[in-house]
Amino acid sequence: MRTFDDDHPGTRIRAQRRLAHLTQRQLAALLPYSYSLLNQVECGARPATEAFLTAVAKALRIDTAVLTGHPHVSTIQQDRREALVRPIRDVLALYDLGYDPDVTARPVGELVIAADQLCATVRATKLREASRVLPGVIAELTSTAWSTPSSEAWRALASAYRSAHDVAVKLGFYDLSTVALDRMDWAAERGSDPCLAAIRQYKRALVHSKSGEYRIGERLIEAGLRILEQAEEGRERLAVTGQLHLGASVIAARAEDQAAVERHIAEARTLAKQTGDASAVHWLSFGPMNVAVHAMSALTQMRQYDDALTAARKIRPPAAFATSRRAHFLIYRARAEMETGNATRALASLSEARHAAPEQTRYHPSTQETIRGLVHMARRTPEALNHLAAWVEK
Question: How far apart are CA 372 and CA 394, in angstroms?
Answer without folding.
Answer: 16
